[in-house]
Amino acid sequence: MKYYLFLAAAILCETLGTSFLKKTEQFSKPIPSIIFVVAMVGSFYLLSHALKGIPIGISYAIWSAAGIVLISLVGYFVYNEKLDIPAIIGILLIVSGVLVINLFSKSTSH
């Protein structure tokens, strides 16, 4: 269970970092750039702790899928970026794949 808490924290850090990436304006803005770098380093640090108890493929699948969903929400609410139906369907397919892995795969039990 604690490994999934590390993974959740890694996902939140990654989402925070990615949400500031656009604000860095190609790393020309120091404060957003620092936030991005610190959040991403924190994300990978926390992900490395999650890997002690969750297989790397499973961890990465969850990390990337959750990150896609969360950053899409940030894009929508913060940057006013819209998703069309094919994009939403694609994101739902990614989430469905992660759910299949977690619900039915024996690979998740490390």
Automatic annotation (TrEMBL):
GO molecular function terms noted in the UniProt entry: amino-acid betaine transmembrane transporter activity; antiporter activity; choline transmembrane transporter activity
The answer on whether this UniProt entry bears the keyword Transmembrane reads yes
Gene3D superfamilies, alphabetically?
1.10.3730.20
Describe its membrane topology.
Multi-pass membrane protein
Mostly located where?
membrane
The record's subcellular locations are:
Cell membrane
Kindly list the biological process annotations in GO that this record carries. glycine betaine transport; xenobiotic detoxification by transmembrane export across the plasma membrane
Classification via Pfam families? Multi_Drug_Res
- List the record's Gene Ontology CC terms alphabetically: plasma membrane
* Residue ranges crossing the lipid bilayer per the database entry: 31-48, 60-79, 85-104
InterPro entries recorded: EmrE-like, Small_drug/metabolite_transptr, Small_multidrug_res
Q: Which domain of life is it from?
A: Bacteria
Q: Which UniProt keywords apply?
A: Cell membrane, Membrane, Transmembrane, Transmembrane helix, Transport
Return the similarity comment.
Belongs to the drug/metabolite transporter (DMT) superfamily. Small multidrug resistance (SMR) (TC 2.A.7.1) family.
Name of this chain's protein:
QacE family quaternary ammonium compound efflux SMR transporter
